[in-house]
Structures are given as C-alpha cells and as structure tokens.
Design a protein that fits this description.
The complex is a heterodimer of chains A (411) and B (246). In chain A, helix 2 packs across helix 11 (329-366). Chain A has helices at residues 4-17, 19-57, 86-95, 130-134, 147-151, 161-168, 211-218, 241-255, 271-314, 316-324, 329-366, 374-400, 404-409, and strands at residues 61-66, 70-71, 74-75, 100-115, 118-127, 139-142, 156-159, 177-180, 183-191, 206-210, 230-235, 266-269. Chain A contains 13 helices and twelve strands. Chain A has 411 residues and is α+β, with helices and mostly antiparallel strands. Chain A is 55% helix and 18% strand. Helix content of chain B is 31%, strand content 28%. Chain B has helices at residues 62-69, 92-102, 118-127, 133-146, 162-174, 192-208, 220-223; strands spanning 18-31, 34-47, 51-55, 77-82, 85-86, 103-107, 180-184, 212-216, 228-233, 236-242. Chain B has a single domain, classed as 3-Layer(aba) Sandwich (Rossmann fold). Chain B is α/β, with parallel strands linked by helices. In chain B, helix 3 crosses helix 4 (133-146), helix 3 packs parallel to helix 5 (162-174) and helix 4 packs across helix 5 (162-174). In chain B, strands 6-7-8-3-9-10 form a six-stranded mixed sheet, with helices on both faces. Chain B has a four-stranded antiparallel sheet with strand order 2-1-4-5, with helices on one face. Classes of the chains: A alpha+beta (411), B alpha/beta (246). The interface between A and B is medium-sized, with 25 and 28 residues.
Chain lengths: 411, 246
C-alpha cells in the first residue's frame, strides 16, 4: 500500500493541472447531490407537514356521520339524514369501551357572532368537554365548559384564536359577552393555536359551546331532539381503530334496527387511516424524488469515469515512469481511484452547499416547507463518494494493467 | 572503495558473482501476424561491479535486451536471473518490487514527471517503498546533493537544463541504493560537454560505490568509458570484449 497523503497530493496536483476539466466533471456530481438534497428536503418538508396536521387533528380518530336521505329519488348526500343522536355517542362509550377511549357528539353549523361593533361568521360546534381530549387540543386561557353546563344548556363559549383576533383584537376576551345568532354567551376560555388542517381549513376559526345549548338554542334539532351531526371517536390505540370501526358499525346497526346485510343509515370514517395513507404517499413521493435525483448523480459518475479514462490515456507515460521506479498495481490503482474520489467528494461537498441554499430558496420563494435532514446530507455525501470509487475503479484498473515498457514508450 | 554510511552494505555481493545472468534469452514480437525475433538466444553474464556498454545498430535487439533485464518486459524464451532471482516466474507486483529495490533507470528522454519538483521526482522510488515522508525527503535531498544539484530541489523539470534533468534522473536511480543502474542512451539528448560530465558521474558511481552499470549507446567515445563492450546484431551477440585500459 501506498502513502495516502502523498497520493492525495499527487491527485490534487493532477486535478489542478486541468482546472476547467475538473470543474466541469464535478458539475455532474454537484448537480446530482444538490438535486438529491433539495428534493429530499422538499419531500421531507411535505411529509413533516402532513404528520403535523395528523397530530393536530388528534390521533386514532374515527368519525361517524349520519347517512344520506333519499327524497323523491334524490339522494341528499352524507349527513343529510338526522338519525344520529347523542344517545348513540353514549352507547358507543358504554358498549365499546374496550377499544374506544372517548366518543364525542357534535352538532355544528355556521353562525354570525357579534361583539360590540365587531361581527364575524364562523363554525359553531355544540359538543361535550371530551372534545378537547379527542382533538389533543389545549386551552390558551380560561376553561372548557363542564358536564353540568352541557346538561343545563349553559350559554358559555370557548373561542378559537382566529375568532378572538377578529372580534377582540388585542383585548382579553375572557368574561366578555358575545352574541351567537343574537343569543348572548359568556366567553369562558380561549383555545391555543392549531393552524391549518390538511385540507387547508383554518382550524382556529371555531367556537365551542355545550351540545345541549347548540341543540336547543342555536341550531334546533327538528323532529329528533337529541340529533347530532357527527360523533368523533378516539380509539385507545392505532391497533384498535379497525375493531372500533367494526364494533361501532354493529352497535349502531343494532340501535337503528338495520339488518346485518342492509346498508346502514350512517357512515364510519377512519380519519387517521386516511391521513396515514396520505402521509405514506408523500413518503413514497419523497423516495421517488430522491431516486430521480440520484439518477443525475449516477450520470455525474459516468462523467467522472469518462474523464478518468481520458486522464489515464493522457498520462500513460507517467504511469510507465511510476511503474519503472517500482509502483505496484495497487499503487497505480489507488492513485486514480483517489483522484476520482477527490473529484466526486469535492463535487459532493459543493453540491451539499448548493442543495442547502436551494432548499432554503424553495422555502423562501415558493413558500414550501423544506426540511434538510442530516441523514439526506450524509446519504448524498456517502453516495457521491461511492460513485467516485465505483466509477474511478475501472479507469484505475485499466491503468494498472498497462505493460510498463509500452506505457514508457507511449508518446 | 569507501562505502558511505547510507550506502547499503554490499558485502553479500562478491565481485565474481553474476548479477545478471541470461541463458538463451529470446523475445519474439507478433506484429500483425508476422513474428519478429528481436532477441535470439542471448546468453550473458554480468558480474556485480561491472561497467558494461551495449552497442549495436537500430533493431539489433539491444533495447529489447535492456528492457528485459530491467524487468520492464518479459522474454518469450530462455532464462533470466537477476541477483539469482528468477524474475520470469514472478507476478507483476513482485517484479515491481524487484525494479524498485534492485534497478535504477536512466533514460535518453530523462523520463521525469513534469509539474513535479526535482526533489519529488527523486523521492518517487521511496514513495513506492512506503518510506515515511520525512525520511523520504532526507534521503532524496542527499541524493540530489550528491549529484551537485543543491538549490535546485524545488525546480520542475522544464526549468532545468538537459544535464540537470539527467542528474535528477540519476539521483532517482540512486536513492533506493539499487545495485544496478540501467542507462538507455543517457547522453543521447545532451551536448558533448554535458555528456562527458554525465559519463564521469557514472564512472565515479561505478568505481566508488561499485554500482553495476549497463549502458546502451551507439557512440564509441561513450562506450569507451566502460570496461566491457557487448555488440548486438540481429538479436544476437556479435562480440563481447573488454575495453583496453587507456
């Protein structure tokens, strides 16, 4: 084996001799590495955002909607039937407690809110205190209504951040009286900020009030006194989602007197699963982007091989001289491999730098969230090194096979 | 014959011992279906400490002979022993080691690495022998000084005169303490005055360090520096006789 520092010095000298050529050869690797880093940063950013949204929605969620009604041959769509009641929610809690941690009934609708001379239209959710737990939501200030207040249909409200900003500005809303559809409510709490949902909805544009209050004083329930628009169910774990879905379906069919083979008058949606699928698809997308970018690194590697082959031919005489003074096959091989490695690693480092800049630029100018993971940097750097060794090997091997006397005589 | 401290002890070599021994050596080239006999049954003994000049017209096989005894090329027939080692049976890397340890080359075209300083050129054989950097530098520097090139160590070959370049090449050949120097028309690219200087260097090395020198030339006054002249013709030895003392 050969002296590594000396070999490295020889490689650098050889690369410096052909500055332009070395730079152009590196360009392939530079573009490849920076593309890999940028693409992985964009992909990781997207999938991180989705994960964030999933956890902001609350984990292990199922949502039960009432089924559609058919009026004069027209099917009115999901949720149009008023078959779901808060009793159903209580029954789910009672009967499926092995797999269900919490079931929260909700009656929601849009309403105009007035405070002083300000007004705002938002979604008003009549629900139970369990809602905050189900959605993993914290209060920024004050408290949530208790079971007593739900039972008594108390006129108290908990506001989302967007509502607070639009009605109160900088003012502290606690204890203030707002009007929802002209009914006065006392603000008892403010929710912490949650941000956008996966569908781009502002989750903070919301008011929570006791379910009974919504049913009796704001939206009305028509013929069914306990009607709700949905029941949000939190399963005990991700593994319990499937059994919970099955048990709830069975229970509600039974309660609604629907035969086992008939279609139910309700729908159970596995929200978390849907989100997970979305998350997985972004991950696949990230991998795909990375793979495509890796192809450009490969192309860069072929460029290195090309130049190394030219270099071996050009320096045949030098190889001959080295062999004459006693360079062994591996000495020659190592020299050219190190040269290729130096090219690819300098290219790799430059590419990483460029990739970081590009990822930053994408997040600033395109507004996409980008996350450069250290792993992607290590991967790109390692991969460029591997490419250098891999594509440097053949030219190096070719050089080492030269016959000393033929190499010496080469002009 | 004062061996300096750095010079490897040569007690092992008796002056009667053959350093180069060939037996019926032949080399056949295949050029487009025609086989050309460049060497045709050459048997020679060169003893340790000899100064041999090889002469002959172009195509006489003298260069082929030099390449084979220099382990740069392989014979197609016959036997070659270098310092009692049968080189023909060795693999590439073992032969490379033999070149590194036993042989110093001096070529007509100098064959120095361009864009590489004189000192680094001299260091080259040591590099392939894994001598540590500091020691390498020291040995190369003393070889360079021995050739009277002090102050030129950082010059690149293209900044040196022909004579200086050839001195660098000789220093490179000496730095590993090889017992044999093979010089292929070392004065072919030099003027008469410089040629004389270079030849005097060879004579001195042969006399003072008892380094065996085999030199290819076609100039009689260059061959006259040697102690024995072997003439080649058509791949065979035409004559082999000692040079009469001047």
């Amino acid at each position: 084996m050969i002296n590594l520092p000396a070999t490295f010095k020889i490689s650098l000298r050889a690369l410096r001799t052909n500055k332009m050529r070395s730079a152009l050869t590196m360009l392939g690797i530079i573009i490849g590495v920076s593309a890999v880093i940028t693409m992985l940063a964009v992909g990781t950013g997207a999938s991180n955002k989705i994960s964030e949204q999933i956890s902001s929605m609350g984990s292990n969620l199922l949502i039960v909607f009432p089924g559609s009604i058919t009026a004069g041959g027209l099917r009115m769509g999901s949720g149009s039937q008023s078959t779901l009641t808060s009793d159903d929610a209580m029954a789910i809690m009672r009967e499926c407690s092995a797999v269900v941690e919490e079931a929260v009934p909700t009656l929601n609708g849009a309403a105009q809110i007035v405070f002083g001379n300000q007004n705002w239209s938002t979604s008003v959710y009549g629900t139970t205190p369990g809602m905050l737990f189900v959605r993993d939501w914290q209060l920024a200030d004050g408290r949530i209504f208790n079971d007593q207040e739900v039972k008594n249909a108390a006129k108290v409200a908990v506001l989302g951040q967007t509502v607070v900003t639009n009605l109160f500005g900088e003012m502290n809303p606690s204890g203030q009286v707002i009007r929802i559809k002209k009914v006065p409510f006392t603000v008892i709490g403010v929710l912490s900020e949650k941000g956008q949902s996966m569908m781009g909805q502002d989750q903070d544009d919301v008011i929570y009030i006791p379910l009974a209050t919504a049913q009796r004083k704001i939206f009305g329930t028509g013929a069914v006194p306990n009607m709700v628009r949905s029941i949000t169910v939190k399963a005990r774990s991700a593994a319990d989602l499937k059994p919970a879905e099955r048990q709830i379906t069975e229970l509600l069919k039974q309660r609604h007197r629907i035969g086992p083979h008939q279609e139910g008058d309700f729908t159970v949606r596995n929200l978390t699963q849907m989100m997970m699928v979305a998350e997985q698809s972004t991950q696949v997308m990230t991998l795909l982007l990375g793979a495509i970018a890796s192809v450009s690194m490969l192309v860069g590697g072929i460029g290195i091989m090309n130049i190394m082959l030219v270099s071996v031919t050009e320096r045949t005489k030098e190889i001959g001289i080295r062999m004459a003074v006693g360079a062994k096959s591996w000495d020659i091989r190592l020299q050219f491999i190190i040269e290729a490695l130096t090219l690819s690693l300098i290219g790799g480092l430059t590419g990483i730098l460029l990739g970081l800049i590009a990822a930053y630029a994408v997040s600033v100018f395109a507004g996409w969230p980008t996350v450069v993971s250290p792993l992607s940097v290590i991967f790109a750097f390692g991969f460029s090194g591997l490419i250098g060794i891999f594509f440097g090997f053949y030219p190096a091997y070719k050089a080492s096979l030269l016959n000393p006397i033929d190499a010496l005589r080469y002009e | 014959m004062a061996a300096s401290g750095e010079t490897r002890s040569r007690e092992g070599y008796s002056t009667n011992m053959a350093l180069i021994e060939t037996e019926d050596l032949s080399r056949i080239y295949n050029l487009g279906g025609n086989s050309v006999r460049a060497l045709d049954g050459v048997s020679i003994n060169i003893r340790q400490g000899e100064f041999v000049a090889i002469m002959g017209p172009s195509g006489s096989g003298k260069s082929t002979f030099m390449n084979i005894i220099g382990c740069l090329d392989q014979a197609t027939g016959g036997r070659y022993l270098l310092d009692n080692i049968e080189v023909e049976k060795m693999d590439r890397d073992a032969v490379a080691r033999v070149r590194n340890e036993k042989i110093g080359f001096v070529f007509q075209g100098f064959n120095l690495l361009s864009r590489t300083s004189a000192l680094e050129n001299i260091e080259l054989p040591l590099l392939y022998r894994n001598v540590p950097a500091a020691e390498r530098k020291g040995l190369a520097l003393s070889a360079l000084k021995a050739m009277g090139l002090e102050g030129w160590e950082n010059h690149h070959p293209n900044q040196l005169s022909g004579g200086q370049q050839q001195r660098v090449a000789i220093a490179r050949a000496l730095v590993n303490n090889a017992p044999l120097i093979l010089a292929d028309e070392p004065t072919g690219n030099l003027d008469t005055k410089t040629s004389t200087e270079i030849m005097e260097v060879f004579v001195k090395l042969n006399r003072e360090k008892s380094i065996t020198i085999v030199l290819v030339t076609h100039e009689h006054d260059i061959a006259a520096y040697s102690g024995r002249i072997i003439r080649f013709l058509d791949g065979r030895i035409l004559s082999d006789e000692p040079v009469k003392a001047k």
